[in-house]
Structure formats: C-alpha cells, structure tokens
Amino acid sequence: MAQRIVIDPVTRIEGHAKITLHLNDAGDVVEARFHVTEFRGFERFCEGRPFREMPALTARICGICPVSHILASAKAGDALLAVEIPEAAVLLRRLMNLGQIIQSHALSFFHLSSPDLLLGYDAEPSRRNLLGLAAAHPDVARQGVRLRQLGQEIVETLGGRRIHPTWAVAGGVDEPLSAEGRDRLRAALPEGLQTIRHTLDWYKRALGTHQEEAQSFGNFPTLFLALVGPDGGLEHYDGRLRVVDAEGKVVADQLDPARYQDFIGEAVEPWSYLKFPYYKPLGYPGGIYRVGPLARLNVASHCGTPEADRELQEFRCLGRGAVLSSFHYHYARLIEILFALERAEQLLDDPRITSTEVMAHARRNRLEGVGVSEAPRGTLFHHYKVRPGGLLSRVNLVIATGQNNLAMNQAILQIARRFVLGERLTEGMLNRVEAGIRAFDPCLSCSTHAMGQMPLRVQLLGPDGMLRDQLVRD
Amino acid sequence: MECSGTSWSGTEPGVLVIAYGNPLREDDGVGWAVAAALEGCPGVEVQAVHQLLPELVEPLSRASSVVFVDARRDGTPGLVRREPVLVRDGAEAMTHALDPGRLLGLCRRLYGRAPEAVVVSVSGARFGFGHALSEPVRGAVPEAARCALRPVA
Prior knowledge:
The structure holds two protein chains of two kinds.
Chain A: E1 17-23, E2 29-36, H1 42-45, H2 54-59, H3 66-81, H4 87-119, H5 130-136, H6 138-159, E3 168-169, E4 172-173, H7 179-206, H8 211-216, E5 223-228, E6 240-244, E7 250-255, H9 260-263, E8 264-267, E9 276-279, E10 289-290, H10 293-299, H11 306-315, H12 329-349, E11 368-375, E12 378-386, E13 392-398, H13 400-403, H14 405-419, H15 427-439, H16 443-446, E14 456-461, E15 467-473
Chain B: E1 15-20, H1 30-38, E2 44-49, H2 57-62, E3 65-72, E4 80-84, H3 100-111, E5 116-123, H4 135-149
Parallel strand pairs in B: 1-2, 1-3, 3-5
Antiparallel strand pairs in B: 4-5
C-alpha cells in the first residue's frame, strides 16, 4: 500500500524556530507557541552502536557543549561497566566541565546577549551583534573573548582539542593532566577572575535599567531542578537531584538521577520537535520546571567558594523565595563563571589531579546505565540500554533545552502580552521576544553560533486562525 | 615537507597559520592536512579549526602576520592560490561564522591593529562525507604548506 510521509513543519535545520501568537476577538494575545522545527534523531540512529562509542558520537550533538554530552555519556558507560572510576579521573572530568561552563556562559553572555543589554532592545538589528558591541564597547567584547578563550584552553589542555574532544570514556579519561599543563592553566586563572569580577560589577550597576524586561521576561512561578552535592551545595558533575518551588521550599531532595523516569515525564506536542519534560507528581503541564544556571542557584543552599557565595547572597535578594525571572539567567551565568574559576583553582591545587591513574578497566557488567551531569544549560540525562554483547538497544536523552521548553513557551506568552499592542508587529517587539528566548540560552541558538541574530519567524494570528501579520528574520 | 624546531609560543610576534574547514567533508579538510605539515616549524603557530570564531582575534592581535588556509570550490582541483586579505569592517550580514576579512576587522576594533594577512587556498574536487582528500588535493598539500611559509609582505 502506498504510504504518504508528511514532514510538517519543514524548514531549515540548525537553530531555526517559529513563534505563533494567537489573538482573541478583542485583539489580545491568548496563546503563544515556540516551535522548534529541527529534527536530529540521535536517539534512534545511535541504537545498534557499541556503547563505548557513545561519548564520541553524542559529542556531535552540539558544537558548543560537546563536553556535556561526553561526560553524561561516559558516566552512563561507567554505570554499564559498574565501576568506580579513579579519583583523578573524577577531578579531571569536573575540571573539563567547568572549562566548558566558562566558555559556554561567556559565549551566551558576551557574544549573544550583551548586545541587547548594552546597545538596547530597540537598536538596529544590524548593530545588535558582536561587531556592533566591539564598536561601542570594545572592553566588554575583549572580556568575552578572553573568558571564552580561557574556558576553551581548559578543554583543549585536557582533551587535546577545543571541540569534540574524545577524552572522557567509560571507565575514566584517556589521558592524565601533565604538571606543565596544570601550571599553565593555573597561571591563566587570575586574569579570568579579575575579568569576571569586573563584569559582575558593571552588570549589577546596569541591572536597574532593565527592570521592565526583568519583570516580563519569563517572570512566573515554576519548580526548579538541579543536581546538588550531599550537603545541598552547587554541583555540576555528580550528586543527586533537588527540586524547589517558587517560594524556594524544597519539594524533593536527594533524588537518584538514575531513576529520573519516576519523577520526570516527557510529553510531546504536534507542533514542535522538542519534547516537553515535566515533573510527574504535578502532571502535565502543571509540572513545569526550569533547569540551568537560574535553577542551580535557586536549588543550591550554597556555592562552596568564597566569592561565589557572597554573590549568591546578593543574587537571592532579587526574589522572596526563588528568583523567578528568566531574565536573571544572565546574572546567574556570571556567578557561575566566577564559581567555575574559583573551583578550577581548587581542583588544580589538588595534588591528586596529576595522578596517572585515570582509568578503571572493566567489561560490561550491567544492561542499563544512566549518566547525569549539569550542562551549561541545565541537567542532562543519557540513558542507555544494551544487549549482552554491548550494542545499544535503546537510547534516551533528556536535554536541558527541552526541560525549559514549557517555561520558554510561557515566557513568550508573557512577553507578547506585555509588548504586543494591537495587530501590528514592530521590530522592537520582535527584538524583545528574541531576547526573552535567548535568556534561556537554548541550544538551537548557540549551536548555530548565531551572533546577534537567531533565525526567527513571528506570526500574528487572529481568532479565525488567519494570518494578520508576520515578521521574518533569517 | 618536514619542519623541526619549536613553534611560536605566542609571547613574541610570529606567524600565525589558521587552517579551517571540516575534515569530515573530504577536500574541505585540506587546511587540516596543511596544518599538520606545518606543525613544528620554527616561528610559526598553527591552529586548525572548523570555522573562524571571534576568540581567534586574541592570538591574531599578537601575530606579526597571519596565513589563512582554506579549501575552495572553484578552479582546477589541486590548484594552490595565495591572495592578500583585506580588512573588512561593519556588522552587516553576520551569519554562521566570520570570514578572514571580518575577523581582521574585529581584531582591529578590539586590539587597535590587524596583522598583514594572506589566504592560501586549494581548489577541491570532492566535498562529500569522508576523511580522505582527493588525489589532486592530497598532492597539493606540500605546495600549499610551502606557500604558507613564504613571508607575508
């Protein structure tokens, strides 16, 4: 029998999104949807591959955060081997994760978002990018370049290259850190710390001029989810999961990440390829939660490094319980860069970090394994099932951008209700919608290396479903 | 081609070679092969990257001159060309990545100077999936490496 396959929507891949806004008879925005129209298919085409290949394969999911996939994948491999990896391997994986957080957050803040913050949401789109920033604020652009370079240097020193380093594997890491490499990285950190202190100073001074955006860019109650250490402290590599509510109260604590399916459901909608994870006890869509830097700072009881802990206290003054506005993802990213630099210093000062014992050798001992780590954008789950020979029979990836999907859609609605007046779209409105999405730093933007412009289509639909207005930015 | 000695440490101005392209797309990876041939040449720092990104401006700002190595689609496969790069300013049409001229423009904006630069290009024959270079492009790698080492005027 003839079969008809329809792919709808069809559009360009890599970072393309579509937004639709629905109006009622009175012309008010009643619904908004953020459609992610790219389809990658990694979960399916990794099936049948040996599980030991997965760190290298899944690194290709993203050019910005390959380290996150490598680490979550290697940890899922550790679980399949049923081994405890050497101490030095844990320290080195932690260090590489911090390097990636530094470079990814620097990209998001300096290259992608600071043009909005410093040049204004109503600035000409042709100027609202890194080159426009370089012209108007070269010092800020230089800071971004240096911090990103520093994060990449950490990744490259450990993994041998900046992008897609196939270094962390099931059982540990391939190469130890040399004393020379340790000393070089250690010497580079003070400049990074100086830079981020300076950035935090000017950002906090500038925050007062963005009050309108802070109030309307995804400012609503949700749950927040992230890994925490045994003492409830900020954790990016290991630990267990904690969920807090909008008041900052702990809803669930020390959840075993390997049992994520007990408390995280994944819904799908016909209008987006991005899944909609939710917190199961509250159902769908009531179980909306956020992950990433804002969630991590809301969830953790403390950071565990002196300067970041001081900044966290100040940050918490922005909310009565949890800090709710997604606009403050920017602020949280800066605090996490500070934390990552301080923590990297501690790790590099640990004499165990240059140990050459970096690999546990074992055969497959289990048929199922889950690896979890905190990616720059939030909690990342890799869940593998294998056949006795070690070939994968099922792969499930729960990525951070997906976990923020419900919140991103709600944020779009909030921004549209605040800024869309009447039936005409303006460039200023489009800019704010774009900036509101970018606050979450979704992977569909950063993986395309978009500099100041995210390909975007905004449609305004009347109650009859007819298109009233449209703005397209390629 | 063989080189030996210490590569540029980055503390003294030297020649920076930035080879870029995708080594998983056949001849698009010729820059990586040229970079490998130049590794270890005295006074030369070599970076092989997938695309030109803003953070390259920092090492660029410290270099006395820069040589970009890239594949190109036009021309007889294996043809090696060397052309000057003009600094380009302006933020219009920012898309996936920077081109050499805009990278130099960003460098001048941020660091007050842009080094003299040339691009050494090799015309490719195949740009499909695969690691291997085509025969004519593989044969052109030594010439491209020699071309990259000629002083930048």
